[in-house]
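My current task is to audit a protein record that another person submitted. I have pasted the whole thing underneath without changing anything:
***
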Amino acid sequence: MNEKSLQSHHTHYASLGSPWSAKADKVQSITGILLGCFLLAHLHFESSILLGKEAFYYVVQFLEGGMFSSTGHGFPLVTKLFSIFILIVVMLHALVALRRFPAQLGQWRALRRHMSGINHKDSHAWFWQLATGFILFFLAPVHIFTMITNPEIGPHLSAERVYHANAWLLYALLLPAVVIHAMIGLYRVAVKWGLTANRAGLRKVAKVLIVYLISIGLLSLISYILIGRELSLPITPFVP
């Protein structure tokens, strides 16, 4: 099976004959790049907790525009508004991506036969992106809605959410799914739009990033759990 026929299989579930298909592909790529870059930044900002409570506190104040406040304290409204923006991007990305999603049992069976019959790495990557996308359809909005309704973040407040509100379970499921989905997505966008011809090398980079990002995400999550265990309710926000 040549590359052209494999690509044709990947787009089997899309409405290729519709006039908006090409535009939908561009929207999916643009929103995917935006969300992938956001994830890279988000996980690194969150991992500042590994440097201590004070480091995370100042990162939060900076991101929430603390430099424009007379007290140096950031504005939680910034987090709320940015979360609303991310939610809109996620919804748009999901909307255009759903056209490629197997909706019938027969399509899933055909996909399984195809996957078992070939050993094509890009096809397997596409399958994992499909599977993680299905998981994210349910988990990602929960996290984003939480940040919209409760935008207060900080070493103690975030630890309260993770430990006392049991959000660690959501994050433990969300983390690997979103990292795998995003890194495979960025890889496929780079290949789709001809940004690189070295697929093997780019796949290695994606794998390294997946392991690295999941690692720092898990370490950050453990840090919040350890901090939360030491806190008693009601929580007093951390101030250095």
